[in-house]
Amino acid sequence: MLRSKSLSSKVADVVLISILVIVALTCILPLWYTLSLSLSSKTAAAAGAVALWPVDFNFDSYKQLLQDGQFFKSFWISIQRVVLGAGLNFIIVPLMAYPLSKTVKDFKGRNVLMWTLIFTMLFNGGLIPLYLTIKGYGLMNSIWALVLVGGAQTIVFNIILTINFFRNLPKSLEEAALVDGAGPWYILFKLYIPLSIPVLATISLFSIVYHWNEFLYGLIFMTREEFYPLQTYIQQLVVSVDPSTMTEDQYKRMSELSNRTLDAAKIFIAMIPVLLVYPFLQKYFIHGITLGSVKE
Amino acid sequence: MKVNKSVWGFLAIIFILLLVACSNEETATDKEETDNSTTKSTEPADPFGKYEETITIAIGQEVDPSDTSLQDGDTPLDNQYTRHVMENLNIEVEHAFTASPSNYDQKVSLAIASNDLPDAMVVGPVELRQMVEADQIADLTEVYENYASPAIKEIIDSSNGVALDSVTFDGKIMALPNSQAGADGVHNLWIRQDWLDKLGLEPPETIEELKEVAKAFVEQDPDGNGADDTIGLAGPDTSNKLYANFIESTNNLYGFDGIFSALHAYPGYWLEGDDGSPVYGSILPETKEALEVLREMYSEGLIDPEMGVREDSGESIISGNTGMFFGPFWMPYGPLTDAVKTNPDANWQSYALPLDSNGEYTPHLSTTTTQFVVVRKDYEHPEAAMKILNNLLANESEFDPSIGGPGYYPLRLVYAPADEMEVTTVALREVLAGTKQPEDFYDMPAYKLLKSDVDTIFDVKLEPYDNMAIQYWDIENHLGQWTRAYSALVGTAPLVDTEINGVKSLIYSQTKTMEDRWVNLKKLEDETFLKIIMGTEPLDSFDQFVEDWKQQGGEQITNEVAEAVQ
């Protein structure tokens, strides 16, 4: 550290650091609040008395959570979905990005294919047609509805990211391999993929987070709660219902059942898997984003 | 190459998982294709007749994910209710879809839009209209006439034709209506009696007195904690409205319904104008006056300053910061239970106040029909839905809610006499006063909970039996019964003791143009009124709102309403 800092740069440091602290807090406080809520008593939570520290500290919510079979069923469905979705993503993206990273001279249909992909990114048929399509394929209540629909909607972005990364790899590497008699498959698997770990880690992370957090398709394509992925299961618990559309009898039931501390515990547990994945992929992540975007 | 190996290993794992998932898929796909046995029922019309061969009905069902009442491995599809339907009617219930209360409407909309309908389901008035227009549902006129049980017909007739009117399109009955107690359409003034007593105040009879009480609650530290943290009158939160309207005419919590109606303003209602033709209450001068009153109250800090942005206004009631709010009789089922648990002195009492300038209580009244069972057009056994409902009403008292909440009954609609709560209140008072015995009320099966109410009242009410203040109740003994009894003896009491000169809306359902325009008109209305009350727009922007409202389809809608009520 240089000691000869001018006053103005010190002021700048203070300002920047406080801004960063505030931004960091806006990210952390909601998590912290959810944790406090889940460790508080039901009455305190209903009265809005919980702020940064739990009121009437207890583990009741977590004990109750352990008995909730559907929570763990949904948790397992989400894990399957993430593994399948991120796995498919990991396989398909390099296979598509490699040919598409070539110029039109090497790959004639490249532009047509590229624009087709981009078209699907910009326009889509809407929810009802999507629903009818999935129903037509017989994929209702199947995990593949979640894996394929979600995958199809995010994959184009991942492909574009990977194409840019591939294009930044030194051309001479590929030429050298060609001279040595390597074919395209060999070049892709032995050269490009090992060199592209940062970007592949990045797109996997995107895909994992997307599949973990996405809840709408679970709601649309699953007709029963037992097939819901975790975030859909949680969404239906925490979305508030307009009491005026309910009959008195429904409201009574709902108010007897409402349990904010338990919901908070579920939300907190649901965050943990993604929190665990992040640290392992983060170093590649930062690497991958910048490498993919800057031309050397 | 180490990296290389691990990549291949990863790929191999993925492929194995893909294979595993593929083989599992078969069990996961839905069993949509059910063996709909096409045996036509040839038996004569018997409301409780059992089918000779098992028929199936695939329904849309609301399932509350936080309802953990099912016991012994029962599921939403296999429980005391579905087994009862199977045994008594030989109807096998299947689920075309289930959804939580918050998502049920979305699932219904999806089913309607994609024309992928269950055999029968419960819908609201808006969806009913859509389905009639899309020609998706069966004409149930004959089903209702031949198969509705006498008990259901009696309850439906008790609504003076409102229930049947709301399902009749071109003279045909297109759905089966519910009928619920009328009490939850009246929004009482709930008030902290202990605060009033402490400050030496009386319950406010007029709007002026209401303002004074609110001012005292805000400024004189009624909770005695030395902090300036009290709210005079609660305001609506994000899931409630400023006032109940003709489409959602019941159960508006923390709104200003009482203030509007005391000033004879009925925003959101269709009223008869001076010339006898319908007018929309929100565009009348009375509404402007009421908004002016609310605007003043808000600027003086008498209304919760955070109204409209709070997620749940019940929070400040539970924590003991709020002194008054408007809400239906059943608020003990809402925040009041937790409020009393938090602070045993919180003596919430309910009044039919404030009164209008003539000293009369003039609230708006609700419709008693809000939900409908519809049957898919080509379903072979449309009468099955009616039979399921007959069976519910006839046997509801036999079921044990502790091993599966009533919401698990397939196609459940509420059937309650319109005066259910009032009758309960009177009965409880007579039992408490000793003028009648609990046994005197045993023979009233339409009033489903009355027997248990009169039997358990002495478990929760302490002497003196004619004083309803909170310290004369035993809450710990039986919380569930306390909630019910307090709702009757405190919440419903004003409706029994007060002469109610209520105002009804001319219609409680949508017309054709409303389908396209109402959402926007409603939004315009809500935003303008909220801004006027909160002072971000001048009061005179009300006049601009009236102009805009008429131009953007309001005029046309008014004409349609005029046609509909003729």
Automatic annotation (TrEMBL), chain A:
Its main location: membrane. It holds the Pfam family BPD_transp_1. PROSITE patterns: ABC_TM1 (PS50928). Signal peptide: none annotated. The chain crosses the membrane at residues 12-33, 75-100, 112-131, 143-166, 187-212, 264-281. GO terms for cellular component: plasma membrane. Residues 75-281 form the ABC transmembrane type-1 domain. GO terms for biological process: transmembrane transport. InterPro entries: MetI-like, MetI-like_sf. It is found in: Cell membrane. Keywords: Cell membrane, Membrane, Transmembrane, Transmembrane helix, Transport. It is a multi-pass membrane protein. Belongs to the binding-protein-dependent transport system permease family. This is Carbohydrate ABC transporter permease.
TrEMBL record, chain B:
This is Extracellular solute-binding protein. Residues 27-47 are annotated as: Disordered. PANTHER family: ARABINOSE-BINDING PROTEIN-RELATED, DIACETYLCHITOBIOSE BINDING PROTEIN DASA. InterPro entries: Bact_solute-bd_prot1, SBP. The lineage of its organism: Bacteria, Bacillati, Bacillota, Bacilli, Bacillales. Gene3D superfamilies: Periplasmic binding protein-like II.
